[in-house]
Predict the structure.
Amino acid sequence: MEKSSQSECSCANGAGRATSFVSGAGGVGPAHAWRILLLFSINPVILAVLLGGCGADAPKPAAQAETKRAEPIVPEDVLSAAKALLGSETQVLAFGDLAKNGNQEFLAANVVPKTPTNNLPGTIVTRAVVVENADGKWTELLRCDEHLKNQKGFLGLTPLTAITGWRLQFEQSEEKGLQLYFTPLKGATDSHVLPIGVRWNPATKRYQSLDRTYEHFLLEAGSLEDARSRLR
């Protein structure tokens, strides 16, 4: 009988202690109390990981650095030749084996800087040249100023009136070499005319303009009067 009483007493005291603990937890209910007890029974290491993970920011993917291809350094002899032809404000736009004929060439131009009054797309130039290094001497192969010209004369499709500004576009082809497109401009507004294509002609060994299909080469004219009669 005494054992039974002691056991009952013990249970009663244990229940009393549990009840006291629960009731002292800020007035929370039984369900909340069991969550608190479960939290204290978790392995301290796991608890630290869980709590640390909650407070830490999620790992962010590394930002991909924008890699800008470094502009090739223009050789000093190329820069000197370009300035001798077009003045100190010239810019070398391309150099190397441009015509794919084994000779070193460069494309240079007097570029009109972008301003609020000049917001036309592309590269706007007043003058441009393509020059070749033959036996250590720089020789001009193509000139764009008021007209388009090569060693033989005025290129086919060149405007008969003087042009003070051109939009220049160019691209390099592994097969055909440098391909140039000159669009004549009138004042500060685009004239919306078709560009004149110019490319190295391996048959004649000079830069010539192309017809409107950009497939066939056109002959030059010795003078603008001859060009007028040919292009009429």
Q: What stands out?
A: Residues 2-23 form the longest helix (22 residues). Confidence is low (pLDDT under 50) at residues 1-28, 36-42, 62-66. Helices lie at 2-23, 30-41, 44-55, 76-86, 224-231. The beta strands are 91-96, 105-111, 123-134, 137-144, 148-150, 153-154, 165-173, 177-185, 196-201, 206-209.
